[in-house]
């Protein structure tokens, strides 16, 4: 991610949790249930921001599981640390650019939650994640707690660089054309969830 976008997320970090009104508990729990996140799983939350999902993920995977949140914005991560440090016996956060840096570990679930429009080269990132970080039977999820109209409307008003988010069916088809085994899990006004895995199409 470019310096300008990092600065944008650093500056908005103190207000993020009060402004992010879509990620309410019921919706998060519904979306995580759709992903089949269960006890003992390892979950990588890319673009974790202020760690909105982290307590929910820890509760689901339990003590036998493992959760790692990655973000490049120091501002977002400082709030994530304040909220979540002490919730697990291991470091929960890593500062890294998931597009270019090597992320350590293999995971059952890799989340791109409210992050996809900020990815500069989605096919390269997905290929890297599938090759380096996803367990053979695991899944990557592109997810949002709203539909594409809500996301595109917000992005039209702020300075952070982002791509237009296509409807879930359209993005899924584009991913398939680019060689990824993708499918729509759910697409409603309040949820947008696409699954990608290493299975053959
Ligand atoms: C729109 S926010 C979403 C944060 C969080 N997932 C949520 O739903 O509250 C996007 C986050 O992704 C991070 N991000 C975007 N591109 C990134 C990259 N290449 N590497 C690491 N973090 C990135 C940003 O710093 C920002 O915190």
Report on this model:
- With 201 residues, the chain is an alpha/beta fold.
- The protein has one domain (3-197): Vaccinia Virus protein VP39 (Rossmann fold).
- The chain has seven helices and seven strands.
- It has helices at residues 3-19, 25-34, 54-61, 74-84, 122-132, 148-155, 168-177; strands spanning 42-46, 66-71, 93-95, 107-113, 134-144, 181-188, 191-197.
- It has a seven-stranded mixed sheet, with helices on both faces.
- The mean pLDDT is 94.
- The site of S-adenosylmethionine has 20 residues, from strand 2.
The CATH architecture name reads 3-Layer(aba) Sandwich
Q: Assembly state here? A: single chain
Helix segment count? 7
N- and C-termini, Cα separation: 30 Å
Residue-averaged pLDDT:
94
Fraction in beta strands: 15-25%
CATH class: Alpha Beta
User: How many beta strands in the DSSP annotation?
Assistant: 7
Query: Can you tell me the CATH superfamily?
Result: Vaccinia Virus protein VP39
Domain unit count? 1
Strand order, sheet with most strands = 3-2-1-4-5-7-6
Query: What would you call the shape?
Result: globular
Helix content class: 25-40%
């Amino acid at each position: 991610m470019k310096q300008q976008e990092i600065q944008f997320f650093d500056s908005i970090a103190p207000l993020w949790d009060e402004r992010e009104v879509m990620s309410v508990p019921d919706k998060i729990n519904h979306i995580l249930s759709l992903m089949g996140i269960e006890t003992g799983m390892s979950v990588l939350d890319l673009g974790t921001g202020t760690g909105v999902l982290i307590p929910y993920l820890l509760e689901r995977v339990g003590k036998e599981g493992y959760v790692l949140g990655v973000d490049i914005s120091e501002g977002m991560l400082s709030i994530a640390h304040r909220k979540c440090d002490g919730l697990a016996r291991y470091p929960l956060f890593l500062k890294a650019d998931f597009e270019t840096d090597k992320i350590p570990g293999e995971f059952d679930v890799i989340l791109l939650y409210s992050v996809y429009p900020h990815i500069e080269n989605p096919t390269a990132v997905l290929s890297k994640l599938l090759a380096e970080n996803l367990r053979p039977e695991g899944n990557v999820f592109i997810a949002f707690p709203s539909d594409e109209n809500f996301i595109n409307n917000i992005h039209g008003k702020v300075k952070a660089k982002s791509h237009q988010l296509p409807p879930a069916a359209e993005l899924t088809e584009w991913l398939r054309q680019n060689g990824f085994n993708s499918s729509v899990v759910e697409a409603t006004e309040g949820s947008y969830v696409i699954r990608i895995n290493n299975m053959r199409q």
